[in-house]
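Protein: Bis(5'-nucleosyl)-tetraphosphatase PrpE [asymmetrical]
Species: Oceanobacillus bengalensis
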Amino acid sequence: MKIDVIGDVHGCLDELKDLFEALGYTLQEGIYIHPDRRIPVFVGDITDRGPNSLAVMELVYDMVIVHKKAKYVPGNHCNKLYRFFLGNKVQQTHGLETTVAEYEALPTRKQKFIQKKFITLYEQAPLYIEIPEANAIVAHAGIREDLIGRNDKKVKTFVLYGDISGEFHPDGRPVRRDWAKHYQGDRWIVYGHTPVREPRIKNKTINIDTGCVFGNRLTAFRLPEEETMAVPSKQPLVEEKFTTFD
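Structure follows.
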């Protein structure tokens, strides 16, 4: 199996279309298909902050649920939107407010369709995907080797939010441990969640969230080729959103 793992899209529909075209996919019956039957794998956080969150969600829903031509794991933004659609009280901050604004601008009938689609997409998604044919595991914020194979609450927190310490930076961001530098496994861990200017490879892990919604690039990681491909963002650059590692 040949796969293309796609980094955090965050509502950047135009860039996602550009990336599919750069990867050799063509638009057929409203979804993107590769002539070599490559499988796109979305690493989560497909909505929020960007200009076209609902359109991205509907495309992912069609590819994953309707046509079964792609795979998807949820991110923390997906989890928050899911809880919003369930009617839970969630703070409309950190980008959720942009998706909610799109949603609330729709007619009531269309809102119900959108709500049902996203709930279905989220509830049918695994916390992380093991892909033996590609010797890879895809998880939104990564996964420690000792957690692979588990699906408990600790694993859910890790794959959605990373290896959080419970402490916070002065600007309110949670302090996350650098789990990737301790990874010793022989399978690729492909993840996103933390925006970086360039894909970060550490041991056999790769962070492909290159901050498209913050003006950098949208990146895919191709297996078994072990190659990255990226397209430029059309969004304004927000320099302070990018993390640097030692």
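Remarks: Residues 233 and 242 are 14 Å apart (CA to CA).
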